[in-house]
Amino acid sequence: MKRLLVTGAKGMLGGAVVAEAERASEAPDVLACGRDLLDLRYPDGVRQLLREERPDVVVNCAGWTAVDDAETHEIDALVVNGSGVRALALGCEEIGARLLHISTDYVFDGTARTPYPEDAPTRPINAYGRGKLAGEAVVLGLLPRTGYVVRTGWLYGAGGRNFVQTMIALERSRDTVNVVDDQRGQPTWTGDLAARLLSLARSDAPPGVYHGTSGGQTTWFELAREVFTLLGADPSRVRPVSSAAFPSPTARPAYSVLGHGRWAVAGMRPLRHWREALHDAWPSLVGGPI
């Protein structure tokens, strides 16, 4: 990999990918594109930029990520997460670039009780998931030999709003905190995922779908208690509640645990356990924006 283009480079995951690439021993030429340089709402501009810059790998971290807003602006979200991704895939096809596209656990309905394998039937239950699934179909359809879909979820890291940093802030400002205990998933550190994306980009792994989430599983409540423990605070200050305590316009999957079987095909290990990753990420989180 000689030339890497990262979309959504000003976001939490995109920023982590850029930072990881730049500190690699054999760092590629990195073009970090925020929305000011590459806006998925304007397909012609997307394809023109790819023609001009001619990266050999594109990591697409851009997208409409406002889940609740997607419910009332589904067409707008689909323009970004579907049509915009199509322009990116067509541009990559034109110049022969490999595309790593970030997707979501929200393509599943959350009714499973065992981890979803990469080839499990998809059934999104909200507008955000439908839009992201459309983006997946575009990448896999247009780039059967050079397209990779990496599903992730419950992301946290420095440089962006996320659940872990919200809990850090609430521990400082409230005596007790109510946290949902009936949604289960895999907290995933952007640092771990960024490193894995770059390893995938450099590998001879077959194209297709991979699940980029940490190992193990937990609930938001259990994750919040772990955050309080790391802060040296009493975890009993975190109290479990059901999702009904926080009404939302968006239906969210109750079970978002993903299986990682396909990494073996690529000759790679799945990401490590979420608790180990959180402990390693901790210094960057307590010093970052809250």
UniProtKB/TrEMBL annotation:
CDD domains: dTDP_HR_like_SDR_e. Its EC number is 1.1.1.133. InterPro entries: dTDP_dehydrorham_reduct, NAD(P)-bd_dom_sf, RmlD-like-bd. GO terms for molecular function: dTDP-4-dehydrorhamnose reductase activity. Residues 3-281 form the RmlD-like substrate binding domain. It holds the Pfam family RmlD_sub_bind. The keyword Iron does not apply. Pathway: Carbohydrate biosynthesis; dTDP-L-rhamnose biosynthesis. Keywords: NADP, Oxidoreductase. The keyword NADP applies. Catalyzes the reduction of dTDP-6-deoxy-L-lyxo-4-hexulose to yield dTDP-L-rhamnose. Belongs to the dTDP-4-dehydrorhamnose reductase family. This is dTDP-4-dehydrorhamnose reductase. The lineage of its organism: Bacteria, Bacillati, Actinomycetota, Actinomycetes, Streptosporangiales. The gene is rfbD.
